Fold this sequence. Notes:
The chain has helices at residues 4-17, 58-62, 71-84, 91-103, 108-127; strands at residues 32-36, 53-57. The chain is mainly α.
Amino acid sequence: MSSPSLSRAYKKVDERDHGICQHPGCGSTQRISHHHIEARSQARDRVDCVENIITLCYKNHQGNEGPHESAKWREYWLQWQKKTYPYYMTKAEQNEMERLALRRFVDEKALARYEELVEKWRVWNENKIRV
Length: 131
């Protein structure tokens, strides 16, 4: 059973993707499911994030060439996410920002990257799709 916010996110994803498998060249409307680009276990605070969910048919979600089995397709969806939602801040970037917060006082390079990530965090919070 999914949470109310996850159900709302799925609805917005379905509206965006029109209930069609987004795998290149597929276009199936049968046995559609939702795939989290950043794994739920790795990005628990992004489970109901529309920018982190894509619709895939069963074959392209669970099959041998699906994102759970194929590094090629995991990377493809990460790149799709980056291109479609350039403001999306990944959990890895958020973690990096938090680590850099501790180093920003002693390292100019760390300060510059920290400021870049803080700005991305601001833009992310301003632009993310609300559910």
